[in-house]
Design brief:
By secondary structure, the protein is an alpha/beta fold. The protein has 7 helices and 5 strands. Strand 1 and strand 2 form a beta hairpin. It starts with a strand and ends in an 11-residue tail after the last helix.
Amino acid sequence: MLVTINTDASYHKWFKYGGYAYWIVSNEFRFKGSGMLRKKIKRPEEAEAQSILNALVVLFSSVVDNGIISKVIINNDCQNAMAALMGDTKHLRKYKCYSQMQSYRNKMRLVLEKYGQTKLEIEFRYVKAHSDVDDPRSFVNEFCDHNAKFQMYNRVNKSRESDKVYNYKIPEKYKV
């Protein structure tokens, strides 16, 4: 069975918190959701990589028989996150994010091992964000972007630091 995963993440550069959203679809099911990243992160690429890993965990923990999944296509708008998960060190060194992102390849391997998916074929596809095109792929990307931002704003407001420093208002367009 072919499964397509669309993910997006949002990152707040002042508070170092993020949110993520995913849309997972195949001929047999559809999962969509979002959440807050619990720990502080240093770069937006980390939020994007974590969103992909979280979507894989949702997929493998939700599908009863993981053996029926033959290929996963992951659509994301962050080339550095995809390079980190594929182990493309040349790309990471070029964009000066190798030291921060090198651990994500191991994290992906651990997720795949935990769910017995070590031989699974995974294909990464770059999706240009905010393209203003009216097609299904853009609709899903906007869904993920909107929900990731909403979760990021919730996480910033939930943190103790934001209560001391700044009460961040969620913009109206991101309220659910």
